[in-house]
Amino acid sequence: MKKYISILLVSFATSAVFVSCEDSIDKENKPIPYEPIGGYENSDEVAAAHLVSKFSFDGTIDDSKNGITGGTGTNVSYDAGIKGSAYKGSTSSFIAYDNVASSVVNLKSITVSMWIKTDQHTGGAQSLFMLPKKTDFWGNIFSLIESGSSNTSMFLKNHIQRDVTPSIDWSGQFVEHNGDNILKNMYGSWKQIVWSYNGTSSTYSIYVDGQKIVLPVSISKRYASDPTKGGGPFGELASSEVSKFIIGGYQQHLGAPWGAPDGWMLNYTGLMDEFRIYDVALTDNEVSALYKLEKDKR
């Protein structure tokens, strides 16, 4: 009898341990809620009301916000991105879009965010994107990467069209990151670049991997004093004669009414992912949250 009771006790104890293990496994396998970052659960929540264009390049060239549509890809392919797949550039690749919505055309302030993975190049400047202008060689807005002599730095040049009268040509009003302000350690790995222009304060900011770059006043307030307006600020953006949009090339790659590209005008050869345009200048917290969320594939 004692032996029988002992066997029962052992059997009961074994069953209890097994059930306890099952409970433990179930608890371990239950989804763990994401911790909010900067008050957001995912990247699309950041300044959601101000996101006017978004390209994730998950096997498509479409803008999920439909701010820029009618895309035609030339030699477009994809590779692994920071989040899903990414646009893979080459010496002959670009994407041309035929339709640009008023939400993009009429931007007064702007933030452009993108992830890029690229290598050093020579021979000219690679265009990341461009908002063309029919009668202006430089277009309305663009970002490009100049060739450089260092494998750890990037010479980024941004051009933004200003609110001007027809008699004044502000072509060539570049923000240039070179010399002491060159962007360092940019090649060979994924980097998030975010730049913004605040039309209210006429100030420019740039961030790399969620961190704001400290810029001299000559750059951050590049547009704070307009000599043609008695030293007043340049003010809000004023894109005009907008026709089409291009990723990975220049407006000159689109044909008429633009001429053929100059020899230094190079297609972007790196990877690009999560390209976004906002109609406001994002705050430091918003940029930091966007970086962390996208890096976390959220």
Task: Characterise this structure.
The protein is α+β, with helices and mostly antiparallel strands and 298 residues long. The protein folds into two domains: 1-32; 43-295, Jelly Rolls. Helices cover 16% and strands 31% of the residues. It has helices at 2-29, 102-105, 217-220, 284-295, and strands at residues 51-55, 68-74, 77-80, 85-88, 94-100, 110-117, 125-131, 141-146, 153-160, 174-177, 183-184, 191-198, 203-208, 211-212, 245-247, 265-267, 271-278. The strands form two sheets. Strands 2, 5, 7, 8, 9, 10, 11, 15 and 16 form a nine-stranded mixed β-sheet that branches. Strands 1, 3, 4, 6, 12, 13, 14 and 17 form an eight-stranded antiparallel β-sheet that branches. A hairpin with a 4-residue loop joins strand 12 (191-198) and strand 13 (203-208). The longest helix is centred in the first third of the chain and has 28 residues, at 2-29. The protein is globular. The termini are far apart.
Entry summary:
This is LamG-like jellyroll fold domain-containing protein. The chain is of the alpha+beta class and 298 residues long.
Alpha-carbon distance between the two ends: 62 Å
Summed up, the domain count is: 2
Mean pLDDT: 84
What proportion strand?
A: 25-35%
Give the low-confidence spans: 1-26, 163-171
Shape estimate: globular
What do we call the CATH topology of the largest domain?
Jelly Rolls
Radius of gyration: 25 Å
- Report the strand count: 17
Signal peptide: 1-19
InterPro entries: ConA-like_dom_sf (IPR013320)
Keywords: Signal
Organism: Flavobacterium calami
